[in-house]
Design brief:
The protein is α+β, with helices and mostly antiparallel strands and 163 residues long. The chain has one domain: HIT-like (HIT family, subunit A). The chain has a five-stranded antiparallel sheet with strand order 1-2-3-5-4, covered by helices on one side. The protein is globular and about 35 Å long. About 13% of the residues have low confidence.
Length: 163
């Protein structure tokens, strides 16, 4: 019996580590570019011009604000992807248009925004859990170049989160 099992195992292709170049390309479940991906590709200019979030902060555009202090603001996402979906943004960009632009001088505002995300999540009844997401750059599907934290919850979320 043992000899037969060894013959079956030895007949299998040897398991060798292959270089990344020798591996076939990964197949992704999502092939077509989504509307959000197209928007992100179109918005990839990071030019420092006022964004929709700057206009919300300035009260030029209405938003359902659920939290605000001197450093940040939280408001409901108009394109909600979960029963509870809000954004947390710093009120002053100071070069922080995307997470990859963060420097040491941004540590306090980044920490405060994460604290605010947790604080508002509790206020919104997300005690069972939630997800935080920061999209960065065109391939990260960032469509507004003003750093923002998505907080999603109110239902069982799946993994992986998407394409």
């Amino acid at each position: 019996m043992r000899a037969a099992a060894l013959r079956r195992i030895s007949s299998l292709a040897p398991l060798r580590a292959k270089s990344p170049a020798a591996l076939p390309p990964r197949r992704h479940a999502c092939r077509a570019m989504s509307d959000e991906q197209a928007k992100a590709q179109a918005a990839a200019n990071d030019d420092g011009e006022p964004t929709i979030f700057d206009k919300i902060i300035a009260k030029e555009i209405p938003a359902e604000v659920i939290y605000e202090d001197e450093t940040c603001m939280a408001f409901r996402d108009i394109n909600a992807q979960a029963p509870t979906h809000f954004l947390v943004i710093p009120k002053v960009r100071d070069g922080l248009t995307r997470l990859s632009n963060a420097t040491e001088k941004h540590k306090a505002v980044l920490g405060h925004c994460m604290w605010a995300a947790a604080h508002v999540a509790k206020e919104q009844g997300l005690a069972k859990g939630y997800r935080t997401v920061i999209n960065d750059g065109p391939e990260g599907c960032q469509s507004v170049y003003h750093l923002h934290i998505h907080v999603l919850g109110g239902k069982q979320l799946s993994w992986p989160p998407g394409c």
